[in-house]
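User: New here, please read:
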Amino acid sequence: MLFATTCPVCGAAGAAPCARCAAQLKPAPDLPTPDGLDQLVAALSYTGVGRELVARLKYRNARAVLPALADAIAALVDPATVDVVTWAPTSAVRRRERGFDQARLLARAVARRLHRPCRSLLTREPGPAQTGRPRRDRMAGPSFSVARRPPRRVLVVDDVVTTGATMLAAARALTGAGARSVKGAAAARTPLKAAHGLSDAAGDG
């Protein structure tokens, strides 16, 4: 059975996103990788149509955008440098409110494209969500724990990178548990007000 899809941005029938909206997408800003990560990449700039596209997945469960976002993320990652794909989990409160974890959805789709396993390695400890917090508060980052020894080379996927705090917190937890290399990949990256620096999974991270 075939299911009709519509563009989550403008509502036009067909591809998600449609050709008109896809033409308005901007690549992620080229910002430095924070110390503590081996690589940090993102597919889109979290502005305009790119912001709307990711927000529709995050807040409205618009899963029709997953293939396009996963293709774009996977194209930035060398699968030969990754043993396993995981995600920076959202808080338990957000997961209950929404009924899903957008980072998990993205990680599973990216893993399929990289032909690598996708495993739940990180547990988010209680604490405030990153979204909407001032940069100074964000930089403390969330806390993660790792229940089992991870593979040597881990790719952490999230929806949006803003200050780098969530990815860095995930990397600290994974390397502390035995990972040798941790890379981060996100669907979108905010154009940091400008050159102050890092980048974070602003998703809820």
In short: Strands lie at 39-45, 84-87, 122-124, 144-146, 153-161, 181-189.
